[in-house]
């Protein structure tokens, strides 16, 4: 890590040390304005431009100054996490866009080529549009709502469909490329509330994105505070998915709106709801700055529980030592390790994916190095079309090498916790590449 970063991590800080900070963001057209990027080789900068033409790019000054070790670029994990890499596009896609940029193609030709490449990247995996979005009584799709599992509804508020910075591996990259046909979002709180009224089996609402923490507190409150009414007593848990603790902890530290946010979370807690902040962390370094430590302290003071999740991804955290250190740090800070995911089959998966057997070995070695409090982290888990499939191990049954699998969550609750087996495949990186073991034609749930 840079010498200019390490002293700030170790030094103590006063309670009033976090004055309101200015949020300064960079997008693809600003790449050359980033001082550290301007010093990189020209071919690397051009490759970034090519990839950022297809996949979303957004970074802020906090990430640049506090998280990235510029002495170790391009291998630094925080650089890999936030800046485009040439390998994120297949060679045929990269060359197509690169040639168009060099040839100064017309905007129309470029737009057509980019749309073609994006269509090849499986923008909505696991049946998000076809299977997860419910209909109203008239047969119209309820935009911005997903209901895949019986107890849990996901809501995508339109004001929260961006992030303080974008992860390069993001499985929801299609939300951020400006194509309305690919976007899932709604500003209709009435539609959400009506749907929840009609579904008393729903106990959990997950507000997601993007990142709901980019929203003004008043907008977040407009969606959540009505749920304190007695008619929504069945909605017991309010989850908020966010990467803000990593990419912009000052959201919880400075300015009037930060205090408003903390008081909102407090009111929801005191109103009888369990509020869970579903924090996204990919590396222990994201947990080391004074700003994130203070943000965590303030959030915990409201009564909110912070659960931590993230995918296992090549070039960033495909090492058991990174995961064990991250989980131990989370427990030390009072956070709950929750999920290790497998990189989804979308976007730049070819660059970030890890074979399933390696993912399981990393999880197994990492969990051996934490106490019971850290072993709340489940995984490796694949959010596939039928449900969340956990790799429980690799073993031999009746002379056949197999993956041992189970559903942590499923479209059909009857499938949950039923063990099943897939033929061992050392190259498989996603669930749809696995085949049933013992000569079976289908997995039990496919019947």
Count of helical stretches: 15
Q: What order do the helices and strands follow?
A: HEHHEHHHHEEHEHEHHEHEHEHHEEEE
Helix content: 25-40%
Q: Specify Rg, calculated over alpha carbons.
A: 22 Å
Task: Indicate the mean pLDDT.
Answer: 92
Alpha-beta content class: alpha/beta
Q: In whole angstroms, how far apart are the ends?
A: 52 Å
Number of E strands: 13
Question: How are strands sequenced across the largest beta sheet?
Answer: 3-4-5-6-7-8-9-10-11-12-13
Largest sheet: 11 strands, mixed
Query: How much of the polypeptide forms β-strand, as a percent range?
Result: 15-25%
> Residue ranges: pLDDT <50 for 5 or more in a row?
1-15
Task: Summarize the structure in short.
The protein is an alpha/beta fold and 447 residues long.
Description of the structure:
The chain is an alpha/beta fold and 447 residues long. Among the domains are: 6-119, no CATH class; 315-447, no CATH class. It has helices at 6-10, 35-38, 42-54, 61-67, 77-82, 91-102, 107-119, 189-198, 217-224, 244-247, 256-270, 290-301, 320-332, 349-352, 356-367, and strands at residues 25-26, 59-60, 145-149, 152-155, 204-207, 237-242, 274-280, 305-312, 336-342, 378-383, 387-397, 400-410, 420-423. The strands form 2 sheets. The protein has an 11-stranded mixed beta sheet with strand order 3-4-5-6-7-8-9-10-11-12-13. Helix 3 (42-54) crosses helix 6, helix 6 (91-102) packs antiparallel against helix 7 and helix 9 (217-224) runs parallel beside helix 11 (256-270). 40% of the residues are buried.
């Amino acid at each position: 890590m840079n010498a200019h970063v390490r002293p700030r991590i170790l030094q103590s800080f006063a309670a009033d040390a976090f004055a309101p900070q200015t949020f300064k963001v960079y997008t693809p057209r600003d790449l050359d304005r980033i001082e550290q990027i301007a010093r990189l080789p020209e071919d690397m900068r051009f490759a970034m431009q090519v990839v950022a033409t297809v996949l979303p790019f957004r970074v802020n000054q906090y990430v640049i100054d506090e998280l990235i070790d510029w002495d170790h670029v391009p291998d630094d994990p925080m650089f890999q996490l936030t800046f485009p890499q040439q390998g994120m596009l297949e060679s045929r896609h990269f060359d197509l866009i690169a040639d168009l940029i060099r040839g100064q193609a017309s905007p129309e030709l470029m737009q057509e080529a980019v749309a073609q490449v994006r269509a090849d990247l499986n923008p909505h995996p696991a049946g998000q549009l076809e299977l997860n979005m419910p209909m109203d009584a008239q047969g119209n799709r309820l935009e911005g709502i997903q209901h895949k599992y019986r107890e849990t509804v996901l809501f995508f508020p339109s004001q929260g469909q961006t992030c303080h910075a974008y992860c390069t591996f993001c499985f929801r990259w299609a939300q951020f490329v400006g194509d309305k046909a690919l976007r899932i979002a709604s500003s209709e709180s009435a539609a959400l509330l009506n749907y929840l009224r009609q579904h008393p089996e729903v106990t959990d609402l997950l507000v997601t994105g993007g990142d709901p923490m980019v929203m003004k507190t008043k907008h977040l409150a407009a969606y959540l505070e009505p749920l304190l009414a007695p008619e929504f007593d069945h909605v017991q848990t309010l989850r908020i998915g966010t990467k803000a603790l990593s990419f912009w902890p000052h959201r919880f530290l400075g300015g009037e709106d930060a205090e408003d946010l903390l008081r909102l979370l407090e009111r929801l807690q005191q109103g009888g709801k369990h509020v869970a902040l579903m924090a996204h962390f990919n590396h222990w370094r994201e947990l080391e700055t004074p700003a994130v430590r203070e943000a965590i302290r303030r959030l915990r003071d409201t009564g909110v529980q912070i659960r931590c999740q993230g995918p296992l991804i090549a070039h960033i955290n495909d090492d058991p030592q990174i995961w064990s250190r991250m989980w131990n740090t989370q427990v030390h800070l009072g956070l709950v390790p929750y999920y290790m995911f497998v990189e989804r089959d979308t976007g730049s998966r070819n660059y970030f994916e890890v074979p399933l057997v390696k993912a399981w070995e990393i999880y197994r070695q990492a969990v051996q190095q934490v106490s019971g409090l850290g072993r709340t982290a489940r995984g490796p888990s694949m959010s596939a079309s039928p449900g969340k499939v956990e790799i429980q191990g690799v073993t031999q049954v009746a002379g056949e090498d197999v993956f041992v699998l189970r559903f942590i969550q499923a479209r059909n609750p009857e499938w949950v916790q039923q063990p099943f087996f897939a033929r061992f495949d050392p190259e498989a990186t996603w669930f749809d590449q696995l085949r049933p073991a013992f000569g079976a034609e289908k997995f039990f749930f496919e019947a």
